[in-house]
Specification:
With about 550 residues, this protein is mainly beta. Among the domains are: about 80 residues, no CATH class; about 160 residues, no CATH class. The protein contains two helices and 39 strands. It has a 27-stranded parallel beta sheet that branches. Strands 1-2-4-3 form a four-stranded mixed beta sheet, covered by helices on one side.
């Protein structure tokens, strides 16, 4: 028998280690069951109250699915439905019910400081959602938070770690996602116009209940000390989020690094996002950047497929070095995420239009896969361990990466300035191997005369990034077409490496922080449209010890 008054205070807290972002407030919903009608309202303290009649509870449980209209969503594209949406998911979470958007509805979401927490399967279907960012209460409040029902907890006793360590001395009730930091060591000490003092040494990996590390995503750093360690149990079931046509009315804020997070954040492992669309309208002469409409954070085993996203307009501001910079603004962001596959996805605007920033970014992630995607770029900021790009087309910003492990580019067309750009602001470093097979490289998309180089980057050896910098130890290139017909008059031919350091032309130049240079490049069936031979570099001294094998 259902009690006359059922009070569920859903005051869940969730652990996020964020970078420059205020944490989202916890879910704050009170659910009651009385004889009165189903009603949703906000009290003076901002707490959302949801009363559901006992008759409706019985009907909802019988159906196994609830609609936003069941909680009084209007869906006319004008009335703010955020409270109804949040209430629907809160009730669904409490009773393990699926959520479905009403067919043909258009839900308007205004600037209220409220998130809807998703813990059950959600089908947005063919419904539309208008997210109005022109007048908001909190730029850091996500629209949807996809959360685990499991709670993270601190790991006590974990004092140090070694790179590629296979087992840690802990026992857990179930497989968990482990995040460790050492606040006394700084990595990714950024160089250039957005220079900074670096970030705490960080790693993320999965262990089973006996402490065995999943070596498909190994520990990549030596930790002499661990100042914080947490574990989040891996969700055993897969959560599905399907459909939905979302449109963001862009903010009109000043063009500064005040990132907006009006998005969907996935903080639960084993999630599939399928068939979502995100569009943007109303971008003007200025605006603040976005963190990514679809964002993953502190999770593993994520698939994003059949999804259409949109590149944000590029705005400029003054960077930390006191000079003008273009601000990164994203529609797909992957942070501390393992085993993420982005499959059969594309963007609404031209991937070669330089007015729009590169669509995707990642930080502290491992095993990222692009498969059959058409995006303006792939990007790894603060390192990626293992990445694969296959059957894809990348636009004007190409492939930007630093990290370690294996980088594979296969059966893809790249339209960037370089085939692969090793980001100079983080040391142009890749510690591992690179495989390029069955690809087409169109330097700068053929839009302007370009002296083509396969690997771009800059390394002066005068800046401490917080780690030793590496160029790929071994590079294997097979069946590559270089379409370099649009080139300057003094073009000597494409280079494997661009001139990473114009001052390093003889032994008199000494690097204070020496980088480890590439040992071997294997070439098989590399052709050029210009008819010119592929050379090692326009700086032969810097790459004099590279062994090039042509098969």
């Amino acid at each position: 028998m259902i009690k006359r008054s059922l009070l569920i205070a859903s005051l869940f807290s969730f652990f996020f280690v964020t970078y420059g972002q205020v944490e989202n407030p916890p879910e704050n919903v009170v659910i009651t069951s009385k004889k009165k009608e189903t009603k949703v309202f906000e009290n003076e303290s901002g707490v959302l109250h949801v009363n559901v009649s006992r008759k409706n509870i019985k009907n909802f449980k019988k159906k196994g699915v609830i609609l936003y209209s069941d909680f009084n969503a209007i869906g006319d594209g004008k009335t703010d439905d955020m409270d109804a949406i949040a209430a629907t998911h809160a009730f669904a979470n409490a009773h393990n019910l699926k959520v479905k958007a009403d067919e043909g509805f258009t839900y308007y979401i205004g600037g209220k400081d409220r998130s809807a927490v998703i813990k059950t399967d959600t089908d947005f279907g063919n419904a539309s959602f208008i997210i109005d960012d022109t007048n908001i209460e909190n730029k850091d409040t996500s629209i949807f938070l996809v959360r685990s029902s499991n709670e993270p907890f601190k790991l006590n006793g974990l004092k140090s770690l070694k790179k590629n360590q296979k087992k840690i001395d802990i026992s857990l009730e179930e497989s968990s996602l482990i995040t460790v930091t050492n606040s006394n060591t700084k990595h990714y000490i950024r160089y250039g116009l957005n220079q900074d003092n670096g970030s705490d040494q960080t790693d993320i990996f999965v262990v089973d209940k006996n402490g065995n590390v999943d070596m498909d995503a190994p520990i990549i750093w030596d930790f002499d000390q661990i100042t914080k360690a947490t574990a989040l149990p891996i969700d055993k079931t897969t959560l599905y989020i399907t459909g939905g046509h979302f449109t963001t009315i862009a903010n009109k804020a000043a063009s500064k690094y005040t990132y907006y997070s009006r998005n969907m954040v996935i903080g639960r492992s084993n999630v599939i996002v399928d068939g979502l669309e995100h569009h943007i309208k109303g971008e003007g002469e200025h605006g603040a950047p976005y963190r990514g409409f679809v964002s993953t954070r502190d999770c593993a085993y994520i698939t994003i497929k059949n999804t259409i996203l949109t590149g944000h307009k590029m705005y400029r501001t003054i960077g930390s070095a006191g000079k003008p910079v273009s601000m990164g603004s994203y529609d797909l962001s992957l942070t501390r995420s393992l085993n993420v596959t982005v499959e059969n996805c594309s963007q609404t605007n031209d991937i070669n239009d330089g007015a729009y920033w590169g669509l995707q970014s990642s930080n502290y992630s491992k095993n990222l896969v692009y498969d059959n995607c058409t995006f303006s770029r792939f990007d790894a900021h603060k390192g990626v361990a293992n990445a694969t790009i296959r059957n894809s087309t990348l636009g004007h910003m190409g492939i930007n990466a630093i990290g370690c492990g294996t980088l594979v580019v296969e059966n893809s067309t790249i339209n960037g300035r370089n085939l692969i750009n090793l980001r100079s602001d983080y040391g142009s470093t890749w510690q591992g191997e690179v495989f390029i097979k069955d690809c087409v490289f169109v330097p700068s998309g053929g839009r302007k005369p370009t002296s083509a180089s396969l690997f771009g980057g800059t390394y002066t050896g005068k800046h401490d990034f917080g780690y030793i910098c590496y160029m790929p130890e071994k590079i294997t290139i097979e069946n590559l077409q270089i379409k370099d017909t649009n080139h300057p008059d003094d073009y000597l031919g494409p280079a494997i490496f661009n001139n990473f350091n114009k001052n390093m032309t003889d032994a008199s130049y000494q690097e204070e922080y020496p980088s480890v240079k590439t040992k071997e490049v294997i070439l098989k069936n590399v052709t050029t449209a210009s008819g010119k031979e592929l050379m090692v570099s326009s700086n032969p001294y810097m790459f004099k010890d590279v062994k090039v094998i042509t098969k």
